[in-house]
Specification:
The protein is of the alpha/beta class and 272 residues long. 36% of the residues lie in helices and 25% in strands. The relative contact order is 0.17. It binds adenosine-5'-triphosphate.
């Protein structure tokens, strides 16, 4: 695990801070879509935040802005106290704090699992022996030990997603950004992956922001749930989920868990 070196700026500031964010897209027809507006959010170091909301409310846009993949039309993004954008340029030292995993595992089919996981290290020029050693440690962390030399096609969907999470963790990021990482998996595998993700997060101590459409997934994983409303995407409600960790299958059956699920469902239904 990386040493807990905290600069003065990051000790006193949130891990991620979004202020006055607005995002407009140009459409092909020459019009404009206001995808997000008035987004102000501070995320603490080590927090698990889940973004949820109706289709098209701007969840992916918000995550891509945090990842530095989109420069917001207006507003600011700070990562560990440092602005992500300076003028027109992205601060790549801030981007190094980030690991990203999407719905599709996006592993390269012509690379073995260990090579896929170690790819970010290769791009950094880390020597082969060192990066394969790291890949092996990560396969153990995410629960696919023994599959290092396999090809992606030889793994199940859940295992491929574990490999994608391992790859996102390969550079030891402080922040993990995930867009529907288990959206393509069957319900049982998905439940298992949620338990696993919680375990990985608790071991790594990183900050996680995850987008999902699943209310129960949101309540199971989150310290805080950010509910976005659509057209344009705004912050509707922030819901604290105070249940102790680690949560397990039983947690989801408790009345207080179910009460948050019901409340969220009601709020989402009212938006449609
Ligand atoms: N590149 C783009 N160009 C134009 N419009 C876009 C672009 N990307 C997203 N949009 C629009 O911005 C809005 C927000 O999209 P976004 O994908 O962020 O929503 P979302 O909440 O993640 O949706 P979903 O839950 O369906 O994945 C939508 O109206 C979408 O059509």
């Amino acid at each position: 695990m990386r040493p807990a070196m905290v600069s003065e700026a990051s000790a006193s500031s949130p891990e991620i801070r979004l202020s006055g964010l607005e995002q407009r897209y140009r459409t092909e027809a020459g019009g404009e879509v206001l995808a997000l507006t008035g987004i102000d959010l501070s995320i603490r170091r080590g927090e698990f935040v889940v973004l949820i909301g109706p289709s098209g409310c701007g969840k992916t846009t918000m995550l891509r802005i945090m990842a530095g993949l989109i420069r917001p039309t207006s507003g600011t993004v700070e990562i560990a106290g440092r602005p992500l954008w300076k003028g027109g340029a992205r601060d790549d030292s801030a981007v190094q704090e980030l690991g990203v995993a999407f719905q599709e595992a996006n592993l390269f089919p012509w690379m073995r699992i260990e090579e896929n996981i170690a790819l970010p290290l290769k791009l950094r020029g880390v020597p082969k022996a060192k990066r394969l050693e790291r890949a092996r440690a990560l396969t153990e962390l995410v629960g696919i030990k023994g599959f290092e030399r396999r090809w992606p096609r030889e793994l199940s969907g859940g295992m491929r997603q574990r490999a994608a999470i391992a790859r996102a963790l390969s550079l030891d990021p402080h922040i993990l950004l995930m867009d529907e990482p288990f959206g393509a998996l069957d319900a049982m595998t998905r439940d298992r992956m949620n338990v696993e993700l919680q375990r990985i997060w608790m071991m790594q101590g990183c900050t996680v922001v995850l987008v999902t459409h699943s209310i129960s997934e949101a309540v199971f994983l989150a310290d805080r749930i950010v509910l976005l409303s659509p057209r344009p995407g705004r912050m509707d409600t922030i819901i604290d989920v105070p249940f102790p960790r680690p949560r397990d299958g039983d947690s989801a059956t408790r009345p207080e868990f179910q009460a948050i699920v019901r409340d969220l469902r009601k709020r989402l239904d009212a938006m449609s």
